[in-house]
Amino acid sequence: MSDNEQLNSKLADLQKTSFVVGMVALAAFILMGFLGSEPREFFQSYMIGYLYALGATLGGLGFLCIHHLAGGGWGYVSRRVFEAASKNIYLMAVLFIPVVFMMLKSGAYPWVDTKWAMSDHVVAQKLSYLTTGGFIVRAVICFAIWAVFVYFLNHWSREQDRTGDIIWRTKMKFLAGPALLIYVLAMTVAAVDWVMSLEPTWFSSIFGVMFCIGQGITILAFNIIFITWLAQFEPMKSALKVNRLHDIGNLQFAFIILWAYIELSQFIIIWSANLPEEITWYMNRSRNGFEYVSTALVLLQFVIPFLLLLSRGTKRVASTVRKIAMGILAVRLVDLWWIVAPSVHPGVADMYRHGDEFVGFPLFFTDLLAPIGFGALWFALFLKNFRGMPMLPTKDPMFSEDAEGGHA
Prior knowledge:
Blueprint: H1 3-35, H2 39-70, H3 73-86, H4 89-95, H5 97-105, H6 114-119, H7 121-124, H8 132-163, H9 166-194, H10 207-230, H11 236-239, H12 242-273, H13 276-283, H14 290-309, H15 318-344, H16 366-387, H17 399-403
Helix pairs in contact: 1-16, 2-3, 2-9, 2-10, 2-15, 2-16, 3-10, 3-12, 3-16, 8-9, 9-10, 10-12, 10-15, 12-14, 14-15
């Protein structure tokens, strides 16, 4: 059996297994929601799993744009991963529909109760923006924008595979710049609506950027894991040269530093201002056990990966950099739980949330079950997308030069 046939067989089996695991996990998650989970508990788990899968999807779109703008051999060995990941945006749009219903019914978004919202002087000033109709319309616009960019970048890439004409490279590069900027702006709107408004008195001007950086970290870690596995087979075995892996490791290293910079910047700005409507977000993450999670995130998502990826040698060994990427991917889930859970179950709720202060540590079995379901279903569709394309964009006019290291 040739490498191609063997790989196709393995990917097909993996796709079927992943689809079954995803459907079983999601079915169990939904069943637990009907049988006993509180609405907020169900919403919390759903949002964590959803944002985890969305991060890999939009991270793929973001890095697809970066590759078309910058070129480089690292992008040519990764491009099919980014394209296949980005095409899952249609799945994510469908899976967002339950979020709309939970927004209305779960009680997780306190501003939906306009009577209470009007009683809070800070939230009352935001009610011209925080409306259920605005929430839905803005979500539709964001998904439409992302879907349009994904469609054209993937369509033109297929045309390039078919013809090898340089015009398609020119088109993708022309679109990539505006697409990258608009992706960040749209993600900022989405992050404010879907996550920040869970604590409507709080605000941060760089919250959306935090999500974009996190999505970049997610897709880079996934990409490292997947392409180093693919390197068992041709043509990836020949294409994934040591310097290409090194470049991808450097990107992961850079995004880890950028994540720490953005997080620290937000913390310092809010800490120095010390305003009641701003500090609640960090207060909710500094008690009820969250202080230990906060410390662990600093260590596991910055300090340890930073020290490991600082070494040039580490980034040039596939097995080592793959293990680091697996750790990063796991910690990304913890980070999303740390962002969402305290907002759904706040510890200082007496400041704004109907006086129903949460006591305890809001970690539920469904917080793991939902990401497994979303992640497995996402991976199954990713593999379907990936199998429908050549592994490498060899018809790109710049492929041979960049893949040989002519342009890092």
